[in-house]
């Protein structure tokens, strides 16, 4: 089931070092005119981006937290209410919020991942004419635009404020061409205008395109990105439309497949986008499963007992009839894994030890985006039905919701937290919905070094611009500490 992704232009995988944040002209042995007509050259560039997204050490040298896009999704989840670590180690700086400060090397994990890939995407976007009638070039331009839009979305949510009500506040610098000098931070509105435009064009260009495998993007993934962006922007009707369209050709996991460990992007029909990992590509200690598979005694989580556990309140909210509760150790323990403490996750398990795939987006996420967007659009009946459609597959005892208003929204978000625990949604939703960080509460199972409480809207929910960018770009205005 595993296939080695062959990259033909490996030089394009390389990203900038700290002093080169503003070097937006990638090296190439092919001129712009040739690039604009060469599907193979552009395909190799896009493949380089996909490769970089699952590579070790491109952002923070020597950090075992740096293994690409999946590491950033994991890092933000560690900042949420829903996940904890039992010992202070790798990811501790995210868990205790010190990693968001400008002088902490972790503040550049996302910055140094996405900006170099935006630079590379700009090479393709600038080279391929927007009005090309070549089907292959259309698909490649569409992928580049979808990637750029998504990378800016990730950056905007981490280094800027939420969209609604903050449109004129500072977000992140915008680079939409290949060769530019360092820029000041654009406003939230300016950044999201580019994100939305990129993704809408990508959806159009990817019409009819069939990808080779789920390591790459197609129209459905671009639609999924746009649904998430639309939800952030408060464009609820648009969010519901794109979420519904994006999930149409996917089937929800059954109980057996849901509980196989989320290590193989070919399992079931739910994975939309991910990365195929092979033993040859893997650096196990610097990998998602090395940190989050509590069952493997070769990794940090299982071997050094730096367990990644679910928050006790969230665990208590999962009904006994919901099979997702089996992904966490109960008070009586788990006979298959007797060394694991209560609340430890068994959701993420890689039986291959060093070649577990990374799943970035599952179609399950679209049900919750669609349900929330429908509810906020005033169509609560349709929202309840969408929520029912996914929840009853996880909990056969679930019945159609009788909630309305804020209670319905809360139910949708709760189900989303349960379903997507550890997959990179919890902290972003907390920030978007104005939910406080509350880990120091009676009966909390968070350890002392993680018992933090921050009010909704706190500066702590925004990453500062990394020190290296501050030093290199005098136009940058820093976010408050």
Short overview:
This protein is mainly alpha-helical. The chain is built from 18 helices and six strands. 40% of the residues lie in helices and 4% in strands.
Detailed description of the structure:
Residues 1-28 have low confidence and may be disordered. The longest helix is centred in the N-terminal third of the chain and has 25 residues, at 135-159. With 481 residues, the protein is mainly alpha-helical. The strands form 3 sheets. The chain has a two-stranded antiparallel ribbon. The chain has a two-stranded antiparallel sheet with strand order 2-4. Strands 5-6 form a two-stranded antiparallel ribbon. It is 40% helix and 4% strand. 52% of the residues are buried.
Q: Rough shape?
A: globular
How many E-type strands? 6
Q: Give the amount of beta strand, in percent.
A: under 5%
N- to C-terminal distance: 47 Å
The largest sheet is: 2 strands, antiparallel
Oligomer: single chain
Mean pLDDT: 93
Topology of helices and strands:
Layout: H1 32-35, H2 39-52, H3 69-77, E1 83-85, H4 92-95, H5 111-127, H6 135-159, H7 188-205, H8 219-233, H9 236-246, H10 255-258, E2 271-275, H11 288-292, H12 300-303, E3 308-310, H13 312-316, E4 358-362, H14 364-376, H15 380-394, H16 405-419, H17 426-433, E5 437-438, E6 453-454, H18 467-472
Antiparallel strand pairs: 1-3, 2-4, 5-6
Annotation keywords:
about 475 residues, mainly alpha, two-stranded antiparallel ribbon, 18 helices, 6 strands, about 40% helix, disordered N terminus
């Amino acid at each position: 089931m595993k296939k080695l992704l062959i990259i033909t232009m490996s030089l394009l995988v390389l990203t900038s070092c700290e002093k080169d944040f503003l070097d937006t002209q990638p090296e190439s042995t092919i001129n712009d005119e040739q690039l604009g007509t060469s599907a193979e050259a552009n395909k190799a560039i896009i493949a380089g981006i996909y490769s970089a997204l699952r590579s070790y050490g491109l952002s923070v040298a020597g950090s075992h937290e740096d293994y690409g896009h999946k590491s950033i999704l994991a890092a933000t989840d560690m900042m949420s209410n829903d996940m904890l670590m039992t010992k202070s180690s790798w990811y501790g700086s995210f868990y205790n919020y010190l990693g968001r400060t400008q002088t902490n090397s972790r503040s550049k994990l996302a910055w140094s991942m996405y900006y170099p890939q935006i630079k590379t995407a700009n090479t393709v976007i600038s080279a391929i004419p927007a009005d090309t009638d070549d089907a292959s070039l259309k698909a490649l331009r569409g992928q580049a635009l979808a990637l750029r839009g998504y990378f800016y979305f990730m950056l905007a949510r981490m280094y800027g404020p939420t969209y609604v009500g903050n449109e004129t506040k500072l977000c992140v610098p915008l680079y939409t061409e290949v060769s530019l000098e360092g820029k000041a931070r654009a406003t939230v509105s300016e950044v999201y205008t580019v994100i939305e435009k990129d993704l809408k064009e990508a959806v159009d260009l990817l019409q009819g395109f069939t990808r080779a495998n789920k390591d790459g993007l197609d129209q459905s993934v671009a639609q999924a990105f746009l649904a998430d962006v639309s939800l952030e922007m408060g464009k609820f009707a648009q969010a519901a439309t794109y979420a519904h369209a994006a999930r149409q050709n996917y089937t929800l996991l059954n109980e057996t497949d849901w509980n196989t460990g989320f290590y193989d992007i070919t399992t079931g029909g739910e994975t939309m986008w991910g990365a195929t990992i092979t033993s040859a590509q893997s650096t196990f200690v610097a990998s998602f499963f090395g940190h989050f598979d509590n069952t493997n005694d070769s990794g940090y989580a299982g071997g050094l007992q730096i367990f990644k556990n679910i928050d006790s309140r969230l665990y208590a909210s999962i009904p006994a009839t919901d099979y997702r509760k089996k992904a966490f150790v109960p008070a009586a323990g788990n006979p298959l894994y007797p060394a694991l403490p209560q609340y430890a996750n068994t959701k993420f398990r890689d039986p291959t030890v060093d070649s577990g795939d990374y799943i970035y987006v599952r179609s399950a996420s679209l049900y919750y985006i669609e349900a929330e967007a429908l509810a906020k659009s005033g169509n609560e009946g349709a929202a309840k039905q969408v929520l029912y459609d996914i929840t009853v597959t996880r909990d056969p005892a679930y019945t159609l919701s009788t909630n309305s208003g804020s209670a319905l929204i809360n139910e949708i978000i709760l189900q989303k937290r349960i379903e997507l625990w550890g997959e990179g949604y919890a902290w972003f939703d907390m920030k978007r919905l104005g939910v406080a960080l509350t880990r120091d509460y009676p009966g909390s199972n968070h350890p002392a070094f993680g018992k933090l409480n921050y009010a909704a809207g706190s500066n702590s929910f925004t990453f500062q611009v990394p020190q290296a960018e501050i030093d290199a770009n005098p136009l940058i205005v820093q976010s408050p500490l």
